[in-house]
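Researcher: Next entry in the queue.
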Amino acid sequence: MRLCLRCGAGFLGDRWLCPQCGFEPQVLAGFPAFAPELAHSGEGYDPAHFSALAELESRNFWFRARNRLIVWALGHYFPGARRFLEVGCGTGFVLSGIAAAFPALEIAGSEVAAEGLNFAARRVPAARLIQMDARCIPFRGEFDVAGAFDVIEHIEDDRAVLRALREALAPGGGLLLTVPQHPFLWSEYDVHARHVRRYRAADLRAKVVEAGFEIVKMTSFVTLLLPLMTASRLAPQKSRAGYDPLAELRIAPWLNWTLEKVLDFERLLIRAGVTFPAGGSLLVVARRKNGNG
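Model: Structure for this entry, 293 residues:
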C-alpha cells in the first residue's frame, strides 16, 4: 500500500496521486520526489563522490564481499520474498547484485540524493526508484524484505528510520542491515563519509528491537581483517583538507584480490553458523513482529 505523506491516507494503484487529498509528489530527474528539499543538499553523503564510487564499487573487495553476504542472507533467511526495498540505494550496486541473484524479485530502491538515482537506474533498469527521506517512507505493509546497507549511520535519528522500515514491511517481513562497528575505529574516514556514529552491537540490537523487530541473526563481519583495519584507521591521520576518503578503495590489484578471498572465507564461516563478536561492520537480520509490539 502507498502512503500519502501529506494526509496519511493509504491507497492502492500505480500512481502516486492521493485520492483523499489530491497530493502528488513532484517529479525530479524522472523520479517521484518525496523530499525534494533534500535532493541536492548533500545531507548524509557528498554527492560529488557518486561518480567515482560507481566506478570503484564493482572492483573493490569490500563492496564485492559485502554484496555476496547480503545476497546470501536474503536468500537464506527470506527465500519466499517477492517484493524488496532498499533504502539508501546509492548508485545501485547492491540492487544490481540482488536483481542478478533473484530475477523474479520485484525490486524498489530509494535515495535521498537525486544524483545517485541516475546511476541506480542505469544499473537496475527494472527497479522502481524514488527520491525520499529514509525517515518518511511512503509505503505501508508493501514489502516482504527491506534493506539499508551502510545507511543509518549517516542519519541522526536512526530510530525514525527503523520505525519507518518496520511500517513499510508486511507483517512478519524481513529486515537486513549493515552498519560500521566499533566507536574506537572512528577516524577521518568517518568524518568525510559523513557518518554520525559507528555502532556498538548492543546499542544497535536495542534500537532494532525497540522499533518492533525480533533479531534472527546478528554478527560482525570484516572480522579477519580487523587488525589491519584498526592499524589503518588509528594511524596518524592527514589533515581534513588533504584527506581523500576514496583512497582506501584504490588499492593494488593483488592486495584487493587477497583481501576479497579473506572475506569470502569469512562468509563461509558465517554461513556455517559462526557468529563473530567483533569486526569492522555488523550484519543484522531481523523480522517484523506482528501487531504493535
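Model: The longest helix spans residues 253-271.
Researcher: Noted, moving on.
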